[in-house]
Write a structure and sequence with these properties.
Order of helices and strands: HHEEEHEHEHEEH
Structural class: alpha/beta
CATH architecture of the largest domain: 3-Layer(aba) Sandwich
CATH superfamily of the largest domain: Glutaredoxin
CATH class of the largest domain: Alpha Beta
Shape: elongated
Distance between the termini: 80 Å
Oligomer: single chain
Number of helices: 6
Strand order of the largest sheet: 5-4-3-6-7
Strand content: 15-25%
Radius of gyration: 26 Å
Length: 189
């Protein structure tokens, strides 16, 4: 079968259109690949929308602790370690904040120390209220991984409804005027 010039032109146009279509599809996929949210952002979005995952641990005093137990309270879930200098400098301001609000805010401190004795020695340096502050030891970092925590300190502010309000990475002055104002407003909601 002999191709007419019109048929040849049509075939050339179809081939060029096919190549352009495939090229555009690959380019479009390349552009959209960067628009996918990283897993850490997806996790935070889920914690804000669906609530933070519950857990059950014993604190270093042997008390059972879980987030479900504290539903209706504002909770600061703080991941720290005694060998972490920024964690050490932040810890006193966390204690002051919790003390300032007299039971309206609870602190769940989760230590990533290598040995329980290190946690206990560190805590002996501070006067800690047993009613508002709970300290657990997450030696294998299982709970930290569940929350997407890979750096210390990291804190999760959890609202009365059990949903993530804010994640704080790094050191913060929890007892500053701004922090007190922030938590005062949060407690009014």
């Amino acid at each position: 079968m002999k191709l007419t010039p019109a048929l040849k032109a049509t075939l050339v146009v179809l081939i060029i259109a096919g190549v352009l279509f495939l090229g555009w599809t690959k380019y479009h996929d390349f552009l959209n690949r960067g628009r996918q949210a990283p897993d850490s952002v997806k996790l935070l979005n889920s914690l804000e929308k669906n609530g933070v995952p519950d857990f059950s641990l014993k604190d270093i005093d042997g008390r059972d602790i879980s987030l479900a137990k504290f539903h209706g309270k504002v909770v600061i879930l703080n991941f720290w370690a005694s060998w972490c200098d920024p964690c050490v400098s932040e810890f006193p301001s966390l204690l002051k904040l919790v003390d300032h609000f007299k039971g309206e805010i609870l602190l769940l401190g989760v230590s990533a120390d290598y040995e329980l004795v290190d946690v206990q020695k560190f805590l002996q340096l501070f006067k800690i209220s047993k009613d508002d502050i709970f300290i657990a030891w997450d030696k294998d970092l299982e709970l930290a991984k569940k929350y997407g925590t890979y750096r210390l300190p990291e804190s999760y502010i959890i609202g009365r409804d059990g949903k993530l309000v804010r994640k704080v990475v790094g050191v913060d002055d929890w007892a500053s005027v701004n922090a007190i104002g922030y938590f005062t407003d949060l407690l009014k909601k």
